[in-house]
Write a structure and sequence with these properties.
- The protein is built from 18 helices and seven strands.
- The protein is of the alpha/beta class.
- α8 packs parallel to α9, α10 packs antiparallel against α13 and α11 runs antiparallel to α12.
- The chain is elongated.
Length: about 400
């Protein structure tokens, strides 16, 4: 957009009073003062385009629509409030895009509010922070309205179509305190992380329920299927009772791997503190074995050494072995990916950074809103592909050829 002669002259006059960075960039500096003029010019240009002719042009005579003055509007900019003149037309068909109707905050400020909310700041904290920067112009209620603007995008993201096949899917839940029916209750947020045939990680959705259970996970997996997922090769989970059956009921061909780290924690709690180091050294021979046969031999040795003192610690491995030993059938490039749920737990660590200071969320919607905004930041930091992905895909093209070849482009 080119500046008019009048605007250039005004800019020159204002520039004469600029003697410091504060005069240029401050709340009442040159840039803040002139920003309103530029936005007003953009709005005027928008109306010209809408009408199809510039001001005072002969083409506008008897055109059926014409200019109809202005209405005043104050919006919050990134350097404070701006007084704008919103153009109107005679038949009311003009809708400005630079400053949409009902908008009280410019896009840059909205992005700033959403970023602060995403890292865990409360609406009141954000309002106080912006007041220190720009003056008392954005109240906590306005901050809440801005963050609510993310809800349609969150709903669209939650309902989007997914890829037909995922190589790896990691399922886990994080627990938050949420106020419901006037009481603060522990609430499970279910997280699903998928790895595509291109080796890219994507969060497939967030779901919220009263507590973690296999039945709710079954409804999560049903949602994935309804959104286009046809097949999953490997599903990595913790040792939740009934989890493998819930997965098999929706994706019967998926191979389930229970998290080895969860299994270690589950067994070590039965071992006396002064024996834990020696027990762990012997247990390591089980899950670090080269083959499943060697692992079972190491488990027998573990039972021989420790079974009389800690039978329950050994039983936890034997009882869960059908799903703990899945990864032994695959090469190292796949083993290191599926033997733990670390991939999704890394996402949960990022979530906890923004939720640990919260006493309780006022509602389930508020919890999902903040987690969704935070996850958008987390995804930007991810590498494009899992390491050694070509090696993984080359192996799967042989071992799982019929299941993935129709979807390889």
């Amino acid at each position: 957009m080119e500046l008019t002669d009048a605007q250039l002259e005004k800019l020159k006059q204002l520039a004469k009073n600029v003697n410091s960075i504060e005069d240029l960039m401050g709340k009442n500096g040159l840039i803040s003062t002139f920003t309103a003029d530029i936005i007003n010019s953009l709005l005027e240009s928008e109306r010209d385009i809408h009408l199809g002719y510039p001001s005072h042009a002969v083409e506008g005579r008897h055109s059926g629509n014409s200019r109809n003055g202005y209405s005043k509007k104050t919006v919050q900019g990134d350097r404070g409030p701006l007084e704008l003149k919103i153009p109107r037309d005679r038949d009311g068909s003009f809708t400005p895009q630079v400053v949409p109707p009902h908008s009280r905050v410019l896009e840059g400020v909205e992005d700033q509010v959403l970023s602060l909310y995403a890292v865990g700041m409360s609406t009141r904290d954000i309002s106080d922070q912006l007041e220190r920067l720009y003056g008392p112009s954005i109240s906590p209620s306005m901050v809440s309205q801005i963050t609510d603007s993310i809800l349609p995008r969150m709903q669209e993201w939650q309902n989007r179509l997914l890829d037909p096949v995922y190589v790896f899917v990691f399922l886990d839940a994080i627990h938050l305190k949420v106020r419901r029916d006037g009481r603060v209750q522990n609430t499970a947020v279910y997280t699903c992380l998928g790895v595509t045939l291109d080796g890219e990680k994507h969060l497939l959705g967030l779901w919220i329920g009263e507590s973690e259970g296999a039945r709710f996970w079954q409804s999560v997996l049903t949602d994935l299927k309804n959104r286009g997922v046809v097949d999953i090769l490997f599903v990595c989970v913790d040792g939740l009772t009934g989890f493998p059956d819930a997965i098999g009921s929706i994706f019967p061909n998926a191979e389930v791997q229970e998290c080895v780290i969860h299994a270690i924690r589950r067994s070590i709690k039965y071992v006396a503190w002064n024996d834990q180091r020696k027990f762990m050294a012997d247990l390591k021979l089980v899950y670090k074995a080269a083959t499943e046969e060697a692992a079972l031999c190491a488990l027998d040795e573990l039972n021989h050494s420790w079974g009389k003192r800690y039978p329950q610690a050994i039983a936890t491995w034997r009882n869960h072995w059908p799903y703990l030993g899945t990864f032994f059938a695959y090469p190292e490039c796949i083993r290191r990916t599926i033997y733990t749920t670390n991939a999704v737990e890394a996402v949960h660590r990022q979530m906890r950074k923004v939720t640990k200071t919260k006493g309780a969320f006022p509602s389930q919607e508020a919890a999902l809103k903040q987690l969704f905004l935070n996850l958008r930041l987390v995804e930007k930091k991810w590498t494009m592909r899992l390491s050694k992905w070509n090696e993984v895909l080359n192996y799967l093209m042989v071992s799982h050829h019929e299941r993935i070849s129709p979807y390889i482009t």
